[in-house]
Amino acid sequence: MAKGKTKAKKETPMMKQFNAIKAKHPTALLLFRVGDFYETFGDDALTASKILDIVLTKRSNGAASEMALAGFPHHSLDTYLPRLVKAGQRVAIVDQLEDPKTAKGVVKRGITELVTPGVSMNDNVLNVKSNNYLAAIHITKKELGISFLDISTGEFFIAQGDQNYIDKLLQGFSPSEVLYCRNDQEAYKEIFGDTYPTFRQDDWVYTSEYGYEKLTSHFGTKNLKGFGIENLPLGIIAAGAILNYLELTEHHHIDHIHQISRIQEDKYVWLDKFTARSLELIFPQNEGGIPLIDILDRCVTPMGARLLKKWTVLPLKDKGGIDARLDVVDFFTKEEDIADDVITHLRQITDIERLISKVAVGRVNPREIVFIKKALQHAAPIKKLLENTSNTEIRAIADRINTCNVLVERIEKEMQDNPPINPAQGNIIREGVNAELDELRSISHSGKDFLQKIQERESERTGIPSLKIGYNKVFGYYLEVRNTHKDKVPAEWIRKSTLVNAERYITEELKQYEEKILNAESQISVIETKIFMDLIRAATEYINPIQQTAATLAKLDCLLSFAFNAIEYNYIKPAITDDKALDIKEGRHPVIERQLSADDPYVPNDVYLDTQEQQIMVITGPNMSGKSALLRQTALIVLMAQMGSFVPAKSAQVGIVDKVFTRVGASDNLSKGESTFMVEMTETASILNNISDRSLVLMDEIGRGTSTYDGVSIAWAIVEYLHNHKKAKAKTLFATHYHELNELAEDFPRIKNFNVSVKEYQKKIIFLRKLKEGGSEHSFGIHVAQLAGMPQSVVRRSEDILDHLEKDKRKEKNKEAIKEVPKENYQLSIFDGAADPVAKKLKEEMEALDINTMTPLDAMLKLNELKKLLS
Ligand SMILES: Nc1ncnc2c1ncn2[C@@H]1O[C@H](COP(=O)(O)OP(=O)(O)OP(=O)(O)O)[C@@H](O)[C@H]1O
């Protein structure tokens, strides 16, 4: 070696091991097990110390530089891991794969689990009431494929469609992580922005062959026809990408994922993403708001709560399916005693859907196995109760509950009632299960008894009253003598350590018993673990029936939730019909009514809409009078009815609705750089382009985001369009401040005017909240300003200005002016949309024609020319 140069220190073997694993998973944060700690190194340590607020230190890597280090005790994994994952980290748990005591050289280590936001079985990462979905998207120019998986429950879905549809699904499923192809980065960002944590995979994963092969080999099928997804090639690619990701994250035991289903778009009411948001179905729009789900959800099981969320965003469209649910709810509202008995047992049932998934992935602990048993034991009386009813729908539910008696008996026979979570802690298996185990236990116990006797005997013999027997890992069992009695210690005792106030000794005799006890204990642990593992293996045979039972109990839980709401809040059974009318008598808003006191209750209102007589209700009324509430309650009642729930009304006839479109309130989207008005127009355009004869449209103050003239014109034209649409007479509630729109009812037969009434009393307004036929004259905006505490001078001045404007009769002129616009301009014609240059040209050409002076040949030639123009 050249003089003056120091020998470059080599990496320690452990750091070499760390670097090798890190190189394979550069984007994951490694929790590296070292002895009793999980350590993080380098950049990972910086990240972990920040997120977890743990101390950052340095470690000599053996190399010239020092490395950042941050760690925590291994038993705190459940506390720290969720915090890392929730902060968006992908965390690789690197465990010691062999016993450090017997390892030669550096302990073998490997990743035992890669926990990412979308792939987690950890109870602390998961929310009991929500699914935790991983999504994969495959993007092509024409369409997109998508797949969702919740590994904690085994639910696996697939779909394919245009950007709007996929975006809507993403909103509904709200995945915790989205996978896409590395090459699609730009396209993905452009379409979906950065709403979700993402992970990119290599392009070879995103091919048809790979996806198809992955799915068929996972399910052990020749093709995918049985799942009804064969014709969704893009969805299959996405689903393949999900299975690939499970491999990458070391999730190899996934037998509980035993089917994949197509998301059947046509089975459910279409709610565009604005509607789900503005009706506040799952999330409130403003902090502190209450979404519908909070009102509906009285579920007592986690799987029930999760299913109810799905039902809420996916109301049904087929009468049979809805009626089946309503019949069960009806039964329970009439048979309250049975409902009470069922719910009492249901309350005792834990999350068997997730527990059985843990069995499949081999992560179930002894206590959880006992929970599964208890759950099935409570499912049995539920099955009995339901079987004995006269209702066929309820008996069908009973049929689907499988109480897995053989498994229950085996768990009951083998497992202690209250075993510890960690099998290594011992005492998980009952006595009488295994003779060898029983014998070893008696050796261990008698050994311990004997130790006790040694202590008593020696205490008497030596005259040391405070003599204690203890145990530690370093030198096993010992006798502890306080310093005051040190002089009484016999010569044959061997001193092992000195503490401040005491000394510890071992003896030959102690060592002998120690060996016996420790031998027995380690064998006990081996036998207990083996019996437990055998039991888990046996339980894997029950994955399907337990999943089915879990799904059935979830459904039952949701229906009971509906029934209890109906009983307590006076909801009624809606009549679902195949016609197109909606007839709600004395309907109430399910959320607002709960917030009001009994002295000042919600004022119910009637709403009637159909496609023949009263297709569009134009609702005027002052600010704060309750227009928005009326619109929303109508949609919520329809959606609740189609979910299978009773509804807050005196009576309700609901002709099946296929799509609900809502444009309610301002949903600012300033973060995306769009103005409120632009958003409003985009949403409205999407409504107008998608309506059908069965759609329900709610529009609230459309046009208010621009000048009054623009606003009135747009609102007017939209109402006309909805009325005149050839194929789709969408039922519409149109709330507006523009009284000019009341004129529409004069010319259009299916438009009717209504107003939410108020009373004026001593220059103040009293809100009556009652919907009445007829238009209204003014807005009372100034009164509302006054109510809001506007300075008196401003209120007075605005009253003067209003007076002046009204006297000027400009308002009247405006109305007249609109009415004077030739009607044809509003009619749909082939020239609709002056923006279309071809249509414009055609129109000009046709107008310029003088048919009287044309020969038949001229006419033919001209026609040919026009036809060319069209093509
Ligand atoms: N039928 C009702 N019974 C009792 N209270 C109601 C009723 N309808 C609405 N409210 C109460 O009145 C408040 C205002 O209602 P809402 O927002 O629907 O008014 P609005 O007419 O849409 O007002 P704006 O035009 O200012 O948006 C609601 O927050 C609700 O608490």
Automatic annotation (TrEMBL):
GO terms for biological process: mismatch repair. One of its GO terms (molecular function) is damaged DNA binding. InterPro entries: DNA_mismatch_repair_MutS (IPR005748), DNA_mismatch_repair_MutS-lik_N (IPR007695), DNA_mismatch_repair_MutS/MSH (IPR017261), DNA_mismatch_repair_MutS_C (IPR000432), DNA_mismatch_repair_MutS_clamp (IPR007861), DNA_mismatch_repair_MutS_core (IPR007696), DNA_mismatch_repair_MutS_N (IPR016151), DNA_mismatch_repair_MutS_sf (IPR036187). Keywords: ATP-binding, Coiled coil, DNA damage, DNA repair, DNA-binding, Nucleotide-binding. SUPFAM superfamilies: DNA repair protein MutS, domain I (SSF55271), DNA repair protein MutS, domain II (SSF53150), DNA repair protein MutS, domain III (SSF48334), P-loop containing nucleoside triphosphate hydrolases (SSF52540). Pfam families: MutS_I, MutS_II, MutS_III, MutS_IV, MutS_V. GO terms for cellular component: cytosol. ATP binds at residues 621-628. CDD domains: ABC_MutS1. The keyword Coiled coil applies. Residues 695-711 form the DNA mismatch repair proteins mutS family domain. Residues 503-530 form a coiled coil. NCBIfam families: mutS1 (TIGR01070), PRK05399.1 (NF003810). PANTHER family: DNA MISMATCH REPAIR PROTEIN MSH1, MITOCHONDRIAL, DNA MISMATCH REPAIR PROTEIN MUTS FAMILY MEMBER. This protein is involved in the repair of mismatches in DNA. It is possible that it carries out the mismatch recognition step. This protein has a weak ATPase activity. Belongs to the DNA mismatch repair MutS family. This is DNA mismatch repair protein MutS. It comes from Flammeovirga agarivorans. The gene is mutS.
